[in-house]
Amino acid sequence: MPPQVSTDETDELFTVAADYLRKRLTPELSQPKVAIICGSGLGGLVDTIEETDKVEFSYEEIPGFVSSTVPGHAGKLAFGLLGKNKMPTVLMVGRFHFYEGYNLKQITFPIRIFKLLGVETLIVTGAAGSLREEFETGDIGVLSDHISIPGFCGVNPLSGPNLPAFGPRFTALSDTYDYELRVKAFKAAQKLNFTPGSIKESIYCFAGGPTYETRAEARFLKSTGGDVVGMSTVPEIIVAKHCGIKILGLILVTNKVVEKKPKSADPMNYQQMMNYQDQEPVNHEEVIALGVSKAKDMKNLVKTIIELI
Ligand SMILES: O=P(O)(O)O[C@H]1O[C@H](CO)[C@@H](O)[C@H]1O
Ligand SMILES: Nc1nc2[nH]cnc2c(=O)[nH]1
User: Fold this and answer.
1) d(CA 253, CA 193)
2) Which pLDDT score, from 0 to 100, does residue 28 have?
3) Is the residue at 4 inside a domain?
4) Engineering a disulfide at 25: which of 29, 150, 231, 309 sits with its beta carbon 3.0 to 4.6 angstroms away?
5) What range(s) does the Nucleoside phosphorylase domain occupy (predicted)?
6) pLDDT per residue over 219-242, tens digit each?
7) How far apart are CA 239 and CA 110, in angstroms?
């Protein structure tokens, strides 16, 4: 039996959604132990589950779910068995974002459904821009911490009445990213012979989007100690931590946010000093394309991590 979280009227919709899914799944699939959120361009992760036992629901049909509106986010929930250990798993193929106009409660709604279904581990994936010279495009970041820029302004998915059935009023986030899972991520990368250095611990800066960073914002974020920046991930992670789900964050670096002003530029040579203007601005098509090109690596990594769980 999955853990039973008692509910009251406020969280009635969570129960309705969980019951809706449970009724349409076999007992084996209705009690997933692992949930995976697929980030931009990473929807291919759904292929890690066997086609034969895959059951999918479009977000539109699940009570309380909103729709995916961003290219690269298909908008479906897929249940199946993953890896050699046939881990019962649920995948969000496409996530919700604050910049789509949804509030943080809507964005994080699925996490509490996962809790009610019995999920113990959440693997959050996403695309992000690199704030550090040493983080190359295509590298994978294993999240060790985050900085929520909207959080400093009171934008937090746990604002408003607390739901004690899920967790406490005040939640400590100091150990949010499970150490054992991070170790497993590195062990999996080693097992798969990933290029040394292409997978690194990273601190994720959550920016609201949908605009990418100005050059000054990029410098500011870098000065905060962040390694990568994206427009998602943190809200889901906060709600998962609140209800006691173990968390692993995997970020694919899809572009570089740091500007490349040459260190040796002659201060009297305005062309040298200003040549960072030549840098191509980032765009979402490039973000998705990078995700698709690294799909195989991401799939193998996630599968191997789950086999180590
Ligand atoms: O975080 P995911 O959804 O993977 O995608 C990242 O890429 C998109 C911008 O290109 C934003 O949604 C940003 O958060
Ligand atoms: N904020 C932000 N999100 C991203 N997602 C993918 N790349 C980026 C980026 O450069 N900035």
Assistant:
1) 19
2) 92
3) no
4) 29
5) 33-306
6) 899 999 999 999 999 999 999 999
7) 10
DSSP 51-85: GGG-EEEEGGGSTT-----STT---EEEEEEETTT
What's the 268 CA to ligand 2 centre distance in angstroms?
Answer: 33
What residue numbers bound the domain in which 65 lies? 9-308
Q: Determine whether 40 is an active site residue.
A: yes
| Ligand 1 pocket: which of 36, 45, 95, 97 to mutate (most atoms within 8 A of CB) | 97
pLDDT at 277: 59
Closest ligand relative to 213 C-alpha: 2
ipTM: 0.99
Task: Report the domain count for the chain.
Answer: 1
276 vs 20, which has greater pLDDT? 20
Of all protein residues, the one whose alpha carbon is nearest to atom 6 of ligand 1 is: 127
Residue type, position 159, single letter: S
Catalytic residue among 59, 232, 242, 298: 232
In a domain, 183, yes or no: yes
